[in-house]
Amino acid sequence: MCRCSSRSNTCAATHRPSAPPAWRWICRPGGAPFDRLAGALAAAGQPTNGAQLRDPPDGLAVAVRQLARARGARILVFIDQFEELFTLAAGDAVAFCEAAAA
After folding, report:
1. Buried b / exposed e across 29-55, counting CB within 10 Å, b at 16+?
2. pTM (two decimals)
3. Inter-residue contact 11 to 24 (CB < 8 Å)
């Protein structure tokens, strides 16, 4: 039985255990969402930086596709604590949402 007290715990309990250990990355936007995501992608083996993910608008999509090709698998980008975009990084919120939707 899994007892979860938050959405983050629910996602961790239901999705992360089924992924191989080498594929478990967590990204929380914080005050610098593009830099945080770039760090998560770099830890996964896709070196990049926040500026490359932000501009061009499809920079995030390109980086994730390159990682997927390198790994020979699909990649799920899960952003934990998504509301931080609007509370801690309001200046990047729209650009980050557009990049994630590209």
Report:
1. beeebbbbbbbbbeebebebebebbbe
2. 0.74
3. no
